[in-house]
Write a structure and sequence with these properties.
alpha/beta; 2,3-Dihydroxybiphenyl 1,2-Dioxygenase, domain 1; 3 helices; 4-stranded mixed beta sheet; elongated; 20% helix
Length: 139
């Protein structure tokens, strides 16, 4: 592999729950490394079980990385970025949509758009914005 681009999401103490949720949505292998397991004693003792680095690699080739924001660093939930999932496997993409939007906020319902695709936007229960686009196979 020459290079890849994937989202790296910062959470405010709930990275483990969020990444386990994304594993439920997309499947795949999840690796979690805590601040405590890294050694070095850089984080406070009550932060030892928080996530220093998480990596989810899914059967569809998605990669999501995340961490908890360490004490002393600013955490501002992202409104300047959305994670986009797209393709022509309507059943899989509708399944992702149902799980991601459950207990979240739908900002654009998943429905046919003027450009021909089925598209929706939601913010999941962890405050992460998602866009789901099901390509029109007729085009």
């Amino acid at each position: 592999m020459a290079a890849r681009l994937n989202p790296y999401i910062a959470f405010n103490g709930d990275a483990r729950r969020a990444m386990e949720f994304y594993q439920e949505v997309f499947g795949g292998e999840l690796a979690l490394n805590t601040f405590g397991s890294a050694g070095g004693g850089g984080a406070p003792a009550d932060f030892a079980d928080k996530i220093m680095h998480a990596l989810l690699e899914t059967p569809d080739g998605f990669t999501i990385m995340a961490s908890d924001t360490p004490p002393g660093m600013d955490h501002t939930p992202g409104t300047a970025i959305s994670v986009s999932v797209s393709g022509d496997d309507a059943d899989a993409l509708r399944g992702y949509w149902e799980k991601l939007s459950a207990d979240g906020t739908v900002t654009v319902p998943l429905e046919k758009q003027m450009w021909g695709d089925v598209f929706g936007m939601c913010t999941d229960r962890f405050g992460i914005a998602w866009m789901v686009d099901i390509t029109d196979q007729q085009a």
